[in-house]
Design a protein that fits this description.
The chain is built from 19 helices and no strands. The chain is mainly alpha-helical.
Length: 484
């Protein structure tokens, strides 16, 4: 495919500043997003420290409940990912009315759908935990936490949608500002509600959930104000006719549905890993939760590159510049590799602070966590590449089906079966499950790279639809079956 000179970015159709280098263009989007994600994960890490003072069972209960909550939050936030892609294309093509309709429909329908799915778990949290195989101690400690945390799902879907809109419309710093404002409140509020302070009662584990709910409400409110009032990126404008509703809703959910299914595969796989690990005892489950909190801080430091991919590639596609889109993909992939190495080294160093940071957990939990940290630190470059491909490159290229295929095969046909064999049936326990997850990452990387090589950015830019545009492969037998 044809390459594009970076000096050609002076074209007036592009939203990026004409004086910006590629590195600056990526940094302007990726750094604020990464900082925002890091702040969110630092907040999660701080909450884990608070909860860890209540004991191993509390850590295990919160981790198990969060793995259920994550399924709904991440799957339904696919609406935000869909909006980000469509807004980037509308922004690049300067279609203001379409942008307004997409944003308004996504906010309205997304909130309703999220509320419908969250309500049963708000009403019957104990039953949900029992149904999913939680131990009696985890159910007792985590039921109230799960109910309250599920109430945040509609608010988080709103925030994901607003954040996607702002990033794709050249306001990548705005969600970061909203996050900073709310994180500053969450940590002291969580401490006050968990342990009690003044007139506030000591609520234990449930206090952390209440702090999260209050923070989610505040963040959604700030992002609403930024989008509609402060920056006026969009205005509330629902479609004027049934035909326009159809024209807006169909592409929004045709794109969101596969992204949602793909995310459902990923989050369900993550939850099923927790189910497997729970068979090894509360110590293993607690260590998994602490490992996730530690790793999250470093892996998300690179995830701003997903938003950079969505925004920069989406704008290029919307402006009909396929060669430019292809060049952005190569550049972001290269930046992601070095980012993964750098943050992998930093992540490995956290093995030195596990015991000082979590003084109340057992020695077994500490040992498991350190093993997980060192093993996963080595794989950070691969994990970052997988995130960029699955969350940015393939969806921006219309290959959401490919993402679904990869995120189904990797956990359900590779990782989880191997985890059962190594962790439960063979005497490798926690170490066996960690190894299985790393093998899954290798499988995912190989499959993502195969799908990415088939993308035809030139063809996609000529017809920027949500369908995949790929280079025909006569040797692939699935072409005869009409499968991607």
């Amino acid at each position: 495919m044809a390459r594009v000179r970076w000096s050609e970015m002076n074209n007036s159709n592009r939203a990026a500043s004409t004086t910006e280098t590629p590195g600056r263009s990526i940094a302007n989007i990726a750094l604020p997003v990464s900082i925002e994600f890091v702040l969110i994960l630092v907040l999660n890490f701080a909450n884990q420290i608070v909860v860890a003072t209540l004991g191993d069972t509390a850590v295990a209960a919160v981790g198990f409940a969060n793995s259920i909550n994550l399924i709904f939050n991440m799957t339904l936030s696919a609406i935000g990912a869909s909006v980000a892609i469509l807004v980037a294309r509308a922004f690049g093509a300067k279609r203001e009315d379409q942008l307004n309709n997409v944003v308004s429909v996504a906010l309205l329908t997304g909130t309703i759908i999220a509320a419908v799915f969250a309500l049963p778990l708000v009403m019957w949290p104990s039953e949900a935990l029992n149904l999913t195989g939680a131990t009696s101690t985890v159910v007792a400690a985590g039921a109230t936490y799960l109910a309250i945390s599920m109430a945040t799902v509609p608010l988080n879907v709103l925030s994901a949608t607003f954040s996607g809109v702002l990033r794709s419309a050249n306001h990548a710093r705005s969600p970061m500002v909203a996050t900073i404002a709310t994180v500053a409140v969450n940590v002291p509020l969580s401490i006050a509600l968990v342990f009690g302070w003044g007139p506030l009662p000591a609520l234990g584990v449930a206090g952390a959930a209440w702090a999260g709910l209050i923070t989610a409400l505040a963040k959604a409110g700030v992002l609403w104000w930024q989008t509609f009032s402060h920056f006026r990126v969009a205005r509330w404008e629902l479609p004027a006719s049934l035909q326009v509703w159809k024209d807006v809703t169909v592409p929004l959910y045709v794109l969101a549905a596969p992204i949602g299914v793909q995310t459902l595969f990923w989050t369900t796989g993550n939850f099923l890993y927790n189910v497997v690990i729970s068979q090894l005892g509360d110590d293993a489950l607690a260590a998994t939760n602490l490992l996730g909190a530690l790793e999250g801080v470093f892996i998300v430091a690179s995830l701003g590159l997903l938003s950079a991919t969505t925004a920069l590639v989406g704008r290029a596609v919307g402006a009909g510049e396929g060669a430019l889109a292809e060049q952005w993909v190569r550049t972001i992939r290269r930046v992601g590799f070095w980012s993964g190495i750098a943050f992998g080294v930093l992540f490995a160093l956290t093995a030195l602070i596990v015991r000082p940071v979590f003084p109340t957990v057992t020695d077994t939990v500490v040992a498991y966590t350190i093993v997980g940290v060192l093993a996963n630190a080595i794989f950070q470059p691969i994990k970052v590449q997988n995130a960029i491909h699955g969350g940015g490159i393939l969806p921006s290229g219309g290959d959401v089906r490919g993402v679904m295929i990869v995120d189904f095969i990797s956990p359900f046909l590779v990782g989880l079966p191997l985890a059962l064999v190594l962790g439960v049936w063979l005497p490798y326990g926690f170490v066996g499950v960690v190894l299985a997850r790393l093998v899954e990452e290798i499988a995912k990387y190989l499959l993502f790279r195969w799908r990415a090589r088939r993308l035809n950015w030139i063809a996609l830019a000529k017809t920027p639809t949500i369908e995949m545009s790929i280079i025909p492969d006569e040797d692939d037998p699935r072409n005869a079956l009409g499968q991607a």
